[in-house]
UniProtKB/TrEMBL annotation:
<feature type="domain" description="Transposase IS4-like">
    <location>
        <begin position="33"/>
        <end position="169"/>
    </location>
</feature>
<dbReference type="GO" id="GO:0003677">
    <property type="term" value="F:DNA binding"/>
</dbReference>
<dbReference type="GO" id="GO:0004803">
    <property type="term" value="F:transposase activity"/>
</dbReference>
<dbReference type="InterPro" id="IPR002559">
    <property type="entry name" value="Transposase_11"/>
</dbReference>
<dbReference type="Pfam" id="PF01609">
    <property type="entry name" value="DDE_Tnp_1"/>
</dbReference>
<dbReference type="GO" id="GO:0006313">
    <property type="term" value="P:DNA transposition"/>
</dbReference>
<protein>
    <recommendedName>
        <fullName>Transposase IS4-like domain-containing protein</fullName>
    </recommendedName>
</protein>
């Protein structure tokens, strides 16, 4: 006589069945999955702090239409909590706000950010009471291309360049993996 066969896998009594972990159980998954509308369609934007060797140090994601300035503070908070080494922030004109500069001064973070043309015009229109322009060194700012070179290295990874992932946590995991491997390739 043949015994009936069971095709179900063996489980311990009381063990959970099925795939109970999904994107709804993660607290860090943004509501919009970091997908936003921009001129290119649905996109996700990667924000990064990089070191002088073009390696990403801190990463974050946002929707494609989001501006860069609000993401500066989470990146700096993650950087400050991981390192006590002094550093200088080189940022583009998107971060050239008076409130951003004041906050960076309060945190004692050295920074080189160019002034936007509308800020220069507004300052000059005030006449004698226009105040001093913020400190800016073109010699130091020339090194800002390390950020662009870092993104170029990340975009060599197909998963990062195409962004086919459905969820932000999955995409961030792929970007982080590419960043870790890039970091170690640069240093070896």
């Amino acid at each position: 006589m043949c015994a009936p066969t069971d095709t179900q896998p063996e489980r311990a009594p009381g063990a959970a069945q099925g795939d109970l972990s999904n994107y709804k159980k993660y607290l860090d998954e943004p509501d919009d999955h970091a997908i936003g509308h921009s001129r290119g369609g649905l996109t996700t934007k990667i924000h990064a702090l990089t070191d002088q060797l073009c390696s990403p140090v801190t990463l974050a994601l946002s929707a494609g239409q989001a501006s860069d300035n609000p993401m500066l503070w989470p990146l700096l908070a993650a950087r400050c909590s991981n390192s006590y080494a002094p550093y200088r922030l080189l940022a583009d004109k998107a971060n050239s706000h008076d409130s951003t500069r004041a906050q960076l001064r309060r945190l004692k973070i050295a920074h080189t950010i160019p002034e936007r043309s509308d800020q220069i015009t507004r300052r000059k229109a005030k006449g004698r009471n226009r105040g001093r322009p913020p400190g800016f060194s073109g010699r130091i700012y020339k090194h800002r291309n390390t950020v662009e070179r870092s993104f170029n290295r990340l975009k060599h990874w197909r998963a990062v360049a195409t962004c086919y992932d459905k969820y932000a946590l999955t995409y961030l995991g792929g970007v982080t993996l590419a960043a870790i491997i890039t970091y170690h390739r640069v240093r070896n």
